[in-house]
């Protein structure tokens, strides 16, 4: 707005939710005086980033007005952040007390400020106090004309607020008592208040949501919180719309507009006529069932109508605010402030079990408050759900949750039996959203739903009835039944129809199978289905028609990067099916195969091995060596042996599987290309980088043609090719490929998928070789933190990212941190993989390099000698890792000034390296560089100069 005064100020009004009426009153009068006010009810929309808005407001404000009350200092209230920011600008803080407060209430910082009391005053006195407080804080050189001179305008469509805090209630008032324990729902009250203030004349606003969601409680709180802004507040229990004229006639009598000789309907009309010209009234219509039946009874005029309803169909009748369950934070706040001694973990678990439903939380508090422990309540909730949901006092709700659901379900069944039948089926599915397409696909197979299965209109109208009765939340694509509503419905299900209903639920899930679990394009659909397969309230494993779907769900969980969930589901299915189908059943073997995959992805290679070996042996016996499933198990066995460090056996099995797949399936079959990529990995681990590169380049080309550029398997092999290039010293191309792979992986797989994390630390390793340590460090900090959070400190990928981080830290000169991380990584790999595992030995070489640079030469030499001996025994004399260990020992000998021994070892190492590979490879370059340094130290300049010619320039950053 345009300032009407040359000394206009910009004020930020900070307040707690229950004091919104005071904040509006202060803000209105400041704006009338020509000042600019930042107050969320006028300037911030629901959904805005609160912290960002607050920060911007405080930064740009000339002064902060703090509306102080007990609620303002309530523990956990969001105004804590406001107070902190405001106190940083103490010279511009204007404290206004709106109820009695002691210095102990406000704390020492605010107690030191002179605060102005607005409570207990007449409106002229309060305005005078506000004016004095504002002028004293901003100190204008001349009066800014406050109170207003009449030239400024109020916010649009907003009449002058009345002074809050007046004694008593409005002259006409019949609202029930206020709930002293009301908490949460501030966003809903903000939305409600905004809607009522912004709508001009005759504003109707509907709060809608399922039973037990707290609609009535919000309406009661709103009426009390803003009572000072109304002269008439009238509450009507409007469940029976036909009784509205009777209730209206009662209000007409209270307002003195009723005629004694007139009937209820005539007096109701007189009331509507009166409200058209009467300001400041609030009419609450609680629990309206049918929007279409009350339209003619909605008043017009300069007042507000607040409706609560389970039915969401208020379009063209009222503004709408849909209510969901509590946020988890609101649930935790509710429980921790009402249940003595409850821990946060207990509150979290209880809130989850109760689905954050306010009525269920209130009943739980009632039961626990009568002496039941939290643990016992949760156990009873699991074992005797409905009996528990019938218990517990919740005095601000008209009925228990069980009773609320029972009444609504009975009414639905009486009027819409097809919708009730569908609801019974949904009760046996999970509590997650159910796509309506599932119903369309499964409808011909369902036997308990009356009506025409080929109805062209589909389930839309039927689902609408569920929403109308507050028994489900619906949108254009899904519907959702709360977990506790489901429990009540299951408890009251007809036993005679139970099996048929469960069969229909199974039919819905079977019809929902989305297709190939390897295709990320199907993962969203698989995620929806898996959520129901794992939480359905019937034994899905007992349904033959669901077995293929369940197996593929496990496969999806693995491929989408959820190995823990995959392992849990696969283990449960395998245990059930082995007993009923036998260990050789194909579905049992698929479960075992995927359980092995998931166990391996969790980093438990030893636990995965017996699962994979047993599956391989059974498939060879049952299907033969060339069957595609047998070859998959052979490929799995080779991979797990590589992971365990048994490289000779792994290479033999993997090569055989590769050869058989090429012969049986062809060069371009995805299974053959899987074996090809494993062959490339085997060559990399053997130090045959050039051969590995050739295979990986060919495999990438085929995968791009067969599966596509963005397919996860393609991205994996591109990452392997980039590793080849790094090992061959082609850092720029390695970086380019890894940056592309990381971008694709993030977009397709997400930031936390293992393949994405591997691309991150692969790229960081290449950046280290390019000397770009800061970029590598930033990338690795993120990757390492994600690995630790998602997979634990000892997971192989966590340790791989830690090892890369060591080199980045060292390159940045952070020697102490580098040494600490290197030592921790080495000890963890020793414990997890064993002392002779190739990854442990590679970590030892890295640690030695840090120890050597830190001057810990005795320990460095001891570890060097041990690592070299183990590498020779485990990997062989000519393996690149063995030769790298030899170079490391020689460098330690050099540091100890034993130049002769260092030179002899380096010469022997270089000769072995050059037998198999070119001198330009990075590890050979390291050996040459070390030998040049040693020759120079021995004054053997001619030999040093000759070798110097073989050194390549270090890569440019």
Lay out the secondary structure.
Layout: E1 10-14, H1 20-32, E2 36-38, H2 40-43, H3 50-60, E3 63-68, H4 79-87, E4 93-97, H5 103-111, E5 116-117, H6 123-138, E6 172-173, H7 186-198, E7 203-208, H8 215-225, E8 232-237, H9 244-255, H10 264-277, E9 281-286, E10 304-309, E11 319-322, H11 328-336, H12 344-353, H13 358-369, H14 374-383, H15 385-389, H16 401-415, H17 417-426, E12 434-435, H18 436-442, H19 460-468, E13 473-474, E14 478-480, H20 483-491, H21 498-511, H22 523-533, H23 547-559, H24 563-581, H25 586-601, H26 605-623, H27 628-643, H28 647-664, H29 670-685, H30 689-706, H31 712-727, H32 731-748, H33 754-769, H34 773-791, H35 796-811, H36 815-833, H37 838-853, H38 857-875, H39 880-895, H40 899-916, H41 922-937, H42 941-948
Parallel strand pairs: 1-2, 1-3, 3-4, 4-5, 6-8, 7-10, 7-11, 8-9, 9-10
Antiparallel strand pairs: 12-14, 13-14
GO molecular function: ADP binding; ATP binding
Keywords: ATP-binding, Nucleotide-binding
Protein name: ATP-binding protein
């Amino acid at each position: 707005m345009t300032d009407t005064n040359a000394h206009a100020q910009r004020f930020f009004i900070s307040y707690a939710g229950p004091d919104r009426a005071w904040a509006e009153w202060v803000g209105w009068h400041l704006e009338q005086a020509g000042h600019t006010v930042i107050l969320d009810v006028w300037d911030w929309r629901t959904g805005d980033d609160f912290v960002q808005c607050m920060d911007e407001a405080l930064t740009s404000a000339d002064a902060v007005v703090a509306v102080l009350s007990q609620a303002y200092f309530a523990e956990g209230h969001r105004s804590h952040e406001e107070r902190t920011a405001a106190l940083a600008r103490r010279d511009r803080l204007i404290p206004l007390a709106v109820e009695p407060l002691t210095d102990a209430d406000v704390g020492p910082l605010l107690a030191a400020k002179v605060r102005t009391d607005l409570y207990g005053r007449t409106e002229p006195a309060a305005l005078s106090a506000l004016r004095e407080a504002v002028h004293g804080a901003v100190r204008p050189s001349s009066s800014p004309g406050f109170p207003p001179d009449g030239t400024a305008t109020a916010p649009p469509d907003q009449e002058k607020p009345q002074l809050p805090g007046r004694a008593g209630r409005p002259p006409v008032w019949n609202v029930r008592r206020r709930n002293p324990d009301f908490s949460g729902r501030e966003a809903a009250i903000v939305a409600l208040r905004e809607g009522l203030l912004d709508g001009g004349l005759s504003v109707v606003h509907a709060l809608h949501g399922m039973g037990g969601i707290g609609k009535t409680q919000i309406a009661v709180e709103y009426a009390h919180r803003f009572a000072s802004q109304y002269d008439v507040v009238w509450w009507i229990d409007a469940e029976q719309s036909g009784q509205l004229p009777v209730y209206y006639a009662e209000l007409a009598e209270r307002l003195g507009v009723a005629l004694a000789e007139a009937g209820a309907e005539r007096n109701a009309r007189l009331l509507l006529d009166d409200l058209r010209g009467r300001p400041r009234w609030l009419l609450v219509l609680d629990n309206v069932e049918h929007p279409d039946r009350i339209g003619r009874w909605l008043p017009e005029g300069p007042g507000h109508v607040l409706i609560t309803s389970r039915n969401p169909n208020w379009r063209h009748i009222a503004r709408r605010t849909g209510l969901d369950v509590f946020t988890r934070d609101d649930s935790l706040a509710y429980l921790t402030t009402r249940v003595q001694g409850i821990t946060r973990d207990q509150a979290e678990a209880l809130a989850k079990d109760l689905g954050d439903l306010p009525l269920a939380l209130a009943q739980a508090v009632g039961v626990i408050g009568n002496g039941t422990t939290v643990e016992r309540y949760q156990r009873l909730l699991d074992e005797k759900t409905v009996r528990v949901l019938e218990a517990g006092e919740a005095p601000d709700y008209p009925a228990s949750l069980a009773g609320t659901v029972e009444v609504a379900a009975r009414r639905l069944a009486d009027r819409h039996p097809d919708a009730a039948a569908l609801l019974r089926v949904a009760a046996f599915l999970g509590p997650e959203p159910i796509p309506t397409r599932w119903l369309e696909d499964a409808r011909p197979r369902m036997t308990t739903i009356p009506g025409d299965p080929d109805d062209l209109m589909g389930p839309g109208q039927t689902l609408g009835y569920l929403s109308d009765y507050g028994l489900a939340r619906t949108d254009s694509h899904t519907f959702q039944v709360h977990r506790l509503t489901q429990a009540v419905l299951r408890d009251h299900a007809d036993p005679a129809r139970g099996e048929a209903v469960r069969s229909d639920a199974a039919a819905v899930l079977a019809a929902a199978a989305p297709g190939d679990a390897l295709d990320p394009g199907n993962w969203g659909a698989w995620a929806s289905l898996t959520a129901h397969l794992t939480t359905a309230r019937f034994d899905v494993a007992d349904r033959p028609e669901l077995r293929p779907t369940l197996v593929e769900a496990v496969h999806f969980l693995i491929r989408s990067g959820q190995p823990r969930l995959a392992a849990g589901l696969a283990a449960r299915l395998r245990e059930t099916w082995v007993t009923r189908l036998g260990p050789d059943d194909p579905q049992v073997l698929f479960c075992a195969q995927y359980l092995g995959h998931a166990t391996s992805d969790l980093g438990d290679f030893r636990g995965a091995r017996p699962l994979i070996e047993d599956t391989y042996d059974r498939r060879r016996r049952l299907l033969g060596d060339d069957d595609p499933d047998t070859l998959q198990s052979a490929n799995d066995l080779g991979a797990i042996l590589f992971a365990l460090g048994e490289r000779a056996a792994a290479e033999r099995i993997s090569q055989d599987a590769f050869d058989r797949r090429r012969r049986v399936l062809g060069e371009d079959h995805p299974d053959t290309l899987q074996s090809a990529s494993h062959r490339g990995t085997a060559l990399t681990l053997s130090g045959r980088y050039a051969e590995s590169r050739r295979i990986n380049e060919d495999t990438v080309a085929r995968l791009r043609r067969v599966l596509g550029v963005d397919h996860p398997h393609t991205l994996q092999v591109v990452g392997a090719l980039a590793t080849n290039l790094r090992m061959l010293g082609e850092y720029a191309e390695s970086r380019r490929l890894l940056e592309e792979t990381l971008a694709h992986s993030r977009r397709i797989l997400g930031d936390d998928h293992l393949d994405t994390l591997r691309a991150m630390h692969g790229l960081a390793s290449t950046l280290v070789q390019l000397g770009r340590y800061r970029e590598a460090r930033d990338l690795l900090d993120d990757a390492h933190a994600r690995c630790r959070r998602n997979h634990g400190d000892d997971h192989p990928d966590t340790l791989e990212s830690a090892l890369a981080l060591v080199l980045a830290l060292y390159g940045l000169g952070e020697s102490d941190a580098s040494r600490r991380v290197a030592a921790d990584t080495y000890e963890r790999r020793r414990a997890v993989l064993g002392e002779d595992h190739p990854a442990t030995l590679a970590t030892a070489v890295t640690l030695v390099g840090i120890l050597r640079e830190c001057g810990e030469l005795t320990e460095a030499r001891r570890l060097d000698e041990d690592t070299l001996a183990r590498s020779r025994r485990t990997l062989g004399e000519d393996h690149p890792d063995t030769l790298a260990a030899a170079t490391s020992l020689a460098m330690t000998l050099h540091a100890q000034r034993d130049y002769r021994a260092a030179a002899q070892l380096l010469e022997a190492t270089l000769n072995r390296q050059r037998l198999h590979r070119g001198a330009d490879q990075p590890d050979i370059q390291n050996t040459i560089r070390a030998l040049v340094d040693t020759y120079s130290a021995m004054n053997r300049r001619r030999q040093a100069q000759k070798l110097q010619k073989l050194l390549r320039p270090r890569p440019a950053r």
